Structures are given as structure tokens and as C-alpha cells.
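Batch manifest, entry 17 of 40.
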Amino acid sequence: MAIRVIAQRRVLKIGKNPGVKKFVMRPELYTSLTEKKVFSEAATHSGISAGVIKAAWDAAGEVIRAWATEGHSVPLPGLGTMRFGVRSKAVEQLDDVKTSLISTRRIVFTPSVDVKDELKNTSIQITCLDEDGNVLKRVTSGDSGEIEESENSPSQGGTENGGNGGSPLPVGGDTEIEPDDGD
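Output type: C-alpha cells
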């Protein structure tokens, strides 16, 4: 298995060097798997019927949502933990604390060590394309597989990590986990 990435040459339109051609990387788009396929595969690997697995998963989902909305960091067995959080501005005065300081609600996922190790040990295959989509070359990773750690992970001396030693990673493309200090 490998993570597939496209590096396509294109003209930069913004940034420090607009008009310059550079190779820009993006993940190769995969198809979305259906729940039915996931349950079917889990049934094949476990010997438990897909219907039973779906019923158990649905029940677990209800429990996870309920506990997360109560403020718990909830384990997702085999994956890590998740919790809900907010992004907000910091204020100096007690009288300034109000709900309007909250800018977004967030889902924070902290991967387990096993998930992080799987990512670290998975190769990356890059397909280099020109502006027209023609393949120029293919490259397979030789990097260390380093996993980005957040500022709050235990290896960095932080405490907001969901309790399992992983890095909190918000779901949905947002990578900051610290509250906005209003600067």
C-alpha cells in the first residue's frame, strides 16, 4: 500500500513569485468507500455478520456522540480518540467573556500510536505531471516518515492531547488546536 500524490507543474498566481512555474503537490483523489463495503470487509475479517457489525457500529456512534457532547475525550478503538472543541478569542477581562468570542466548533481527532506508525511506515508515491497532465516521472518516498506533532503533544510538553500520547488533529482541514489569542 502507498499514499499516492500528484506533483503538477503550474503557474503560481499568488504568493511571493506569481507567474513562476512550480510543481505543486496534492493527494491523488481516491474514491469514497461506502459504509456497506466497510461493514462487508469487517465481516470478512471477523467472521461476524455485516448486519451485526453495523448494529454495533451504530450503537457505538450514538454513545460516542453523546459522550463527546458531554465534554469527554472518547476512545475510537483501533484509531485514537476524538473530542469536541471550540476556537475562540482570548480576552483579559472577565466581563468580556461571552459566547460571541467563539468563532468555530471543532472535532479534534488524536490518532493512536498504531495509526501514526502505520502512516509513518506507508510509502508515498509521487507522480510528476506537466501542465497538460502528461507524466514526467514517478518517485517513491525515501523520507524518514516523520509525523507532524502538534504543539500540545506530550513529546512537546503539552497536555491537551486526548490522553493517548498522540497529536490532536482537527477534522476538516483545520490544523490549529490552540485558542486564538486575539492578536
